[in-house]
Amino acid sequence: GDQEAGEMGLAAVPGRQAAFRQGLAAAVQYAKAVGCPRIHLMAGRVPQGADRAAVAGEMETTFVENLRYAADLLAQEDMIGLVEPINNRITDPCYYLNTPHQAAAILEKVGRPNLKLQLDLFHCQIMDGNLSRNLETFFPLIGHIQIAQVPGRHEPDSPGELNFPYIFQLLESLCYTGYVGCEYAPKGDTLEGLGWLRSYWESRGLQHGGTSKATE
Length: 216
Known about the structure:
The chain is of the alpha/beta class. It has helices spanning 17-34, 52-76, 100-110, 121-127, 131-138, 164-173, 190-193, 195-203, and strands at 38-40, 80-83, 115-120, 142-147, 180-182.
């Protein structure tokens, strides 16, 4: 969308279907160029001045239609489309898609196997908490996971509400094999801030880089 005009994605914005399709086509070309098999289909914001409840139905209808179109297009390229709930308590009060429950209901209505949930634990904790049960409940829908500590949105080992060693063990027990995206703002130097990852590898008996000490 037009970021200068305050847009943050278009998939659920009524009247912007043509621009959504144009943007999707461009995103597919970029994804093919870099070999990325997943594209985040951003829902967008409730139109300025509109009442969220009053436009919710029209926005959901638009979202479902656009997601079906996107899924069919992405299937031709063997790609996955992702939808991400973004909290409207801190990050973006106007964003349309806010909770994993809302996302799961929409994905069920869309009914396409190549559309998945992009679950950012930062947003999920702020909106709903109950992370263990939510990860277990929505696990079949998850196509990508992102992490950041709450509330500062810094490294996982920074002070905050979330116990990431426990969460990582839970993901292992669920046999999650996808990527975990580090969508946080480092408090200082990026490499220094990755100390949490080195500590995690060591706790799992791995060398830096994720290789097994036994293998070495």
